[in-house]
Predict the 3D structure of the following.
Amino acid sequence: MKNISFENFNEKANTYAQSRASYSNNYINIFCEQLLEQPDAYVADIAAGTGIHTKQIAKYCKKIYAVEPNREMINECKKYCKDLSNIEYIEGTSDNTDLADNSINIITIAQAFQLLNMEKTKKECQRILKKGGKVIFVWNSKELKNDFFYETEKILLKYCPLYSRKIHVLDFSADSFGDFFEETPEFYKFKDDGLHFLTKKEFIGRALCASYSISKSNANYNNYVNELDSLFDCYAVNGLVYAPLSTVIYIGKV
């Protein structure tokens, strides 16, 4: 696997907060179904980033721990979620959350597979989960279904050496994480799930805030942005491009 870490989000927190997609009502409904099984649940949102996912689920939780190792991202998370009183912020990793043994009912990990050591993450999840506790993975997954995606990918491959379709556009199936879960997890995929028409600012912002994206200090940064800008202009209709995402969810015990 290429060298991707949480440091790849340095200098991207603000763009990430403004550009990343939120999670669909289909996912929120499934998350709340899990809460019904565990009243007064304590939730750990691992790799919380700027709090897009954290804020969406926090209002349904008694207590939620936003665990994030990147200081710029967690500071953005604190600002984004400042009106919510049931969130505790922890500058920790998926394999060192600083949470107590057997203290968590539900662990959520949103959009962070490529950043985690799954073996170490599993051990940490086993340590902090209460008996009967579950882990939820969720992604907004890109759909490989139109020329706009493939043309965007050409630019990513040209300028972003950390980009890999194998890592960043996963072919999800029910058994994709068989080694992580205790048994075959619940698996859901909702195709074209949510709002996927983007303005130029949203499209370029999503590209720039990705873990694989180059930073402003890179000599090719301006050329990268200019090519994304030109591509948008080629495909936009009434100032919007269609960039569909699907929601993918795994739920199970570890």
User: Anything to note?
Assistant: Residues 83 and 172 are 35 Å apart (CA to CA). The chain is about 35% helix and 20% strand. The longest strand covers residues 129-142. Strands lie at 42-46, 63-67, 87-90, 104-110, 129-142, 186-190, 197-198, 241-242, 245-252.
